[in-house]
Amino acid sequence: MKKFLAITLVTFLIFMNSTFISYAYLDYTWSTLEVTQEVSSIISSENLDDASNPLHLDCGSCILIEQSTGQVLYSYNSHEKLRPASVTKLMSIYLIMEAISQGKISYDTPIPCSANAESMGGSQIWLSTTEQLTVHEMLKAICIVSANDCVTAMAEYIGGTEENFVNMMNEKAKEFGMNDTHYKNCHGIDEDDHYTSSYDIAILSRKLLNDYPEITNYTTIYMDSLRDRKI
Questions:
Q1: d(CA 75, CA 52)
Q2: 205 included as an active-site residue
């Protein structure tokens, strides 16, 4: 998750062995990728063939889109339903940003930690039921560390329960036309019937960056601190 960056031109999203990897270049130029004339002719909407992989990318599924228009420039197996792991948090982040924009919470709102959130495990900042962090601090932990405890605490605060929040996630996915997606949790720990596709994550990534560009205040942080500790 900490590798997810703001993109000025394109969103390049890849599933590799069922693990989602996000590539982004803040100052994007074709020369950065040393793209030859032959490759640049492949990466065009006129040569789209989602069943083939002419660039021979070592991945199970991928998609390259232009952010402002959503035009698909290159895709391969982009509708295969795979486990998204912590990229699940993109939808959780979208709903957090939406709640801020609607005035339901602010960046300064203190968020408590439940026993459920504390027990999440995996990627975390060891949040405790004895403490509260602001939404601003929670977003830093979620975007930099991919903190399961923090995203669960946020989900419970916004949705009342994690289950209600997950229902909100699925409703938003339907609204966005993410037809390859179904969420079972807000954090991405593997679970049956929890899946998405690179195509759907491209849709969601574009929506997040276009609707709430201020999220890049968090997603472009390489290192920061919380509670006087580095994260």
A1: 9
A2: no
Residue 14 has pLDDT above 50, yes or no: no
Q: Is 183 in contact with 194 (CB distance < 8 Å)? A: yes
pLDDT tens per residue across span 90-120: 999 999 999 999 999 999 999 999 999 999 9
Catalytic residue among 75, 86, 197, 205: 86
78 vs 197: CA distance, rounded Å:
6
For residues 101 and 137, the answer to whether their CB atoms sit within 8 Å is no
**Model pTM score:** 0.81
Contact 65, 183 (CB under 8 A): no
Q: Which of 22, 61, 75, 89 is catalytic?
A: 89
d(CA 11, CA 22): 8
State yes or no: is 86 an active-site residue.
yes
How far is it, in rounded angstroms, from Cα 61 to Cα 33?
19
| Domains, the chain, with CATH or none | 86-203+223-230 (3.40.710.10)
Is the CB of residue 183 less than 8 Å from the CB of residue 91? yes
Q: Which residues of 182-196 are buried (b: 16+ CB within 10 A; e: fewer)?
A: bbbbbbbbeeeebbb
Q: Residue 78: how many CA atoms within 13 Å on its side-chain side?
A: 22
Q: Which of 75, 146, 198, 205 is catalytic?
A: 146
